[in-house]
Amino acid sequence: PFDVLVIGGGPSGASAAVYAARKGIRTGIVAERFGGQIMDTVGIENFISVKYTEGPKLAASLEEHVKEYDIDVMNLQRAKRLEKKDLIEVELESGAVLKSKAVILSTGARWRNVGVPGEAEFKNKGVAYCPHCDGPLFEGKDVAVIGGGNSGIEAAIDLAGIVKHVTVIEFAPELKADSVLQERLNSLPNVTVIKNAQTKEITGTDKVNGITYIDRATEEEHHVELQGVFVQIGLVPSTEWLGDTVERTRIGEIVVDKRGATSLPGVFAAGDCTDSAYKQIIISMGSGATAALGAFDYLIRN
Ligand code: FAD
């Protein structure tokens, strides 16, 4: 059996595996797609100490670092079930069952898509999901934020300080964000809020040049010219396969303590699949290190 088995090969999983292996314990890592979300990222400018890199390049560095150690890498394998017996068992889609004394869950998350024409075509060509990451790329330009919940309104406030103008598009007749956020938003001169509006299409040629929405009250169609669209309708953690084995929040994030421990002894979690307040590469790597050290502490006590 493994001492530590990491499920997920993004930044948090790679970090956890390296930290575990450096303790000289038997470490494995299972990943559906090694690299995780960064495989879909173009420019990365906030991975501190590296001024600029690109997602696939960072993923290759993660893999190279992992391969420096005696880590059993099982790529293109998806975990489908976890169960605690004497050891913790993880069953893969392939039918294989892996056993480990401790497990670190680092299965990450995915942004919820609006699913309108243009979204997929213009991803990284004006369609963005992370204001902390891509906001500065739109300096002086006009952008839209789709979604009027807390993350949408936080994004709009953040972007208003960087870009020329922000149009917020909310499907419901009212914004769902906390009232303090709405008040702050209303105090900004360069923000327009459009409620009761259904996004129909993100338009463009080689990159985004506008957004079309339908006013749900009048059924009239409108078009706004702009250069960027931030989709902020939720980040979905990839944790459905865990069921009730570990405690999860209402939106499915794994609840962890300050050592990365979940509600099930011996099972730890890190990165975007957890209830961490912010989701970023540098944060997920830090939490991967925390979970590995937490798992090591657990192993020497059990
Ligand atoms: P992920 O990167 O989501 O990795 C999850 C891993 O788990 C993957 O290997 C996946 O295949 C695997 N997995 C999932 N389910 C299973 C399963 N059942 N069995 C086995 N494996 C499984 N952050 C920044 O700091 N700077 C940026 O500039 C930046 N830009 C971004 C741009 C885009 C387009 C996106 C989508 C995200 C961006 N982020 C950025 C956020 C950053 O990518 C994430 O915070 C980070 O990747 C989280 O790492 P993670 O390891 O927790 O999860």
UniProtKB/TrEMBL annotation:
GO cellular component terms attached to this protein's record: cytosol; protein-containing complex
Record key words, sorted: Disulfide bond, FAD, Flavoprotein, NAD, NADP, Oxidoreductase, Redox-active center, Ubiquinone
Molecular functions per Gene Ontology: flavin adenine dinucleotide binding; NAD binding; NADH dehydrogenase (ubiquinone) activity; NADH-dependent peroxiredoxin activity; oxidoreductase activity, acting on a sulfur group of donors, NAD(P) as acceptor
GO process annotations (BP): response to reactive oxygen species
Residues that hold FAD according to the record: 3-18, 262-272
Catalytic activity: a ubiquinone + NADH + 5 H(+)(in) = a ubiquinol + NAD(+) + 4 H(+)(out)
Disulphide linkage map: 130-133
Residues engaged in binding NAD(+): 142-156
Domain spans labelled FAD/NAD(P)-binding: 2-287
Enzyme class: translocase
Cofactor: FAD
Note on how the cofactor is bound: Binds 1 FAD per subunit.
Segments passing through the bilayer: none
Record EC number: 7.1.1.2
Entry's family note: Belongs to the class-II pyridine nucleotide-disulfide oxidoreductase family.
Complexes and interactors: Homodimer.
Functional description taken from the UniProt entry: Transfer of electrons from NADH to the respiratory chain. The immediate electron acceptor for the enzyme is believed to be ubiquinone.
Protein name as it appears in the record: NADH dehydrogenase
Natural source organism: Cytobacillus praedii
